[in-house]
Amino acid sequence: MKIARLKKIYNSRFALLFLLGLICLTNLSCGLEVYILMPEPVATVTKEPNIDNTDTGEKYFEFVTNESSEEYAGLGDFKYRGTEVYYRIYSSSSILSTQVSTLESYASDSTKSANSYDKLISYGYKALASSNYNDEPLIKASADSSNQRVYIRLTDYYNQQEYSARITVNGNYLGNSSSVTVPLRNGSDGYTFNFGRSGTYDKVPISGDSDVNYSSNDENTWYVAMFAVALGRDSTFTSYHSNIQYLGAVCIDANSENN
Q1: CB of 27 closer than 8 Å to CB of 226
Q2: How would residue 198 be classed by pLDDT, with cut points 50, 70 and 90?
Q3: Alpha carbon separation from 244 to 103, 162, 163, 213 (Å, rounded)
Q4: Which of 17, 80, 143, 157 shows its CA 20 to 30 Å from the CA of 111?
């Protein structure tokens, strides 16, 4: 009887050890879920245009990236990749205002900010593209983790260089291109934001375009809102994105060649 009892105890301990080992093995293989909270994407918005200002000299976006944030130093192997810019074209200024207001409320609410990017995408916002540059994100991280000043002008005004459509980082074209990097609509067609011009790629937005919120547009006036999102990845190459940051909005008159 003693032998049987000892055997029973031995089997129970063996089963317990086996179960604990299985649990440990499962945790090691699957890993614990890690949540990384990235810092805000923009350190400073130095120029936030608005649709009510039709002054040609004011129709540009400018901001400073937030890649030198000390918060990144505490994220170990996490790598900041750069900043993506998202845009949406609207035919209605009131719908733009309503959706932008909702997105900003998500971004500023501690309980909703984790879902701000998903809300942005649900509204149909697309990543801004550029001529003479095919990399992503649009604004690559600096080599020395220093903040960068980004300038974006969507449209051309006559042939004045000062008011030409372009994207620059610290005064240079994207990727240090020797050719101007012009902001383009998302997609492979290379369409510009010069809605009032007649060039091959100067297409007027229409209902059904994936980057357009269309209701009605009797005046042929369009409104473009933009947001910034920082991107990163961990040692397993899992991608992460930050909270969203509003950059402003501009009005584009498709009845005029110059905006």
Answers
A1: no
A2: very high
A3: 8, 29, 27, 20
A4: 80
